[in-house]
Amino acid sequence: MSEEGIRLQKVLSQAGIASRRVAERMIYDGRVEVDGVIVTEQGKRIDPAVNVVRVDGARVIMNTDLVYLALNKPLGMLSTMSDDRGRPCIGKLIEERVRSNQGVRNVGRLDAETVGLILLTNDGELTHRLMHPSYEVPKTYIATVAGSVPRGLGRQLRDGVELADGPAKIDEFKFLGTTDGQTMVQLTLHEGRNRIVRRMMDAVGHPVVELVRIKIGEVTLGNQRPGSLRALGRDEIASLYKMVRL
Questions:
Q1: Which ranges carry the RNA-binding S4 domain (predicted)?
Q2: What's this model's pTM, rounded to 2 decimal places?
């Protein structure tokens, strides 16, 4: 057996998956795979910088230099890392709270009037795939519109509406209720075009008054305060990797 690399159970332990003893049991039970092949032998050595390790199908993140964050973007803030006109932007929050910035960049954008979930990472391949339309990453929004909405609105949006840059449609629609002359609806779509939710709602005659993104893939905004950052959990990171087939 080659003595190069690091023992697999040690890699799992260092990644925070389990103690070495528990990791050995996981390997014995066939729960661990390396580069797509299930490993059951003890003492297998790997190169964490090269080999892809999964436990129960979820990828194990072994590069400790990688950063994965969720931000609740406040109202009026730009989804950019800098602004030459001095306007408030998310880059300022990162600069203040992430040591040395670590090359963290936003995954996609929200317009200044939209609040809610933005992912940030220095994982370039994950960023590329999350933003690429071929992976159809779902995003969920809650939109507040003026007045009441007709019963058939969800079907109309699922069937698709014509916009200036081509047709667009949603994947899921949910009516949340009406209060004080306004209606709240929840929409899920994998479209990534600029201001797509606002433009779709304009097209069907129900302009958005307020808009918040609450979910990207399996990552949810939860009860994060506006302007707050949190590190993604191991399961959340693994779900993003799985979604874009990394």
A1: 6-65
A2: 0.83
For domain 6-59, is the CATH number 3.10.50.40?
no
159 catalytically annotated = no
Residues 88 and 226: their CA atoms lie apart, in Å, by 14
CB of 216 within 8 A of CB of 117? yes
Give the phi and the psi of residue 225 in degrees, each rounded to 5: -75, 150
Q: Which superfamily, per CATH, for 138-216?
A: Pseudouridine synthase (3.30.2350.10)
pLDDT values of the chain reduced to their tens digit, one per residue, 246 residues: 446 788 998 888 877 787 888 889 999 999 999 999 999 988 899 988 788 899 988 888 877 778 899 999 999 999 988 888 888 898 888 877 776 566 888 999 999 999 999 999 988 889 999 999 999 999 999 999 988 999 899 999 999 999 999 999 999 999 999 988 899 999 999 988 889 999 999 999 999 999 999 999 999 999 999 999 999 988 899 899 989 988
- Rounded to an integer, what distance in angstroms lies between the CA atom of residue 138 and that of residue 212? 15
The residue among 208, 240, 241, 213 whose CA lies nearest residue 226 is: 213
Is 138-216 in the same CATH topology as 6-59?
no
Determine the topology of domain 68-133+224-244 in CATH. Alpha-Beta Plaits (3.30.70)
Are 117 and 215 spatial neighbours (Cβ–Cβ below 8 Å)? yes
Catalytic residue, from 35, 47, 111, 235: name it.
111
Q: Could you tell me whether strands 105-107 and 68-73 are parallel, antiparallel, or unpaired per DSSP bridges?
A: unpaired
Q: Where are the domains of the chain?
A: 6-59, 68-133+224-244, 138-216
Q: Which of 45, 55, 54 is nearest to 6 (CA)?
A: 45
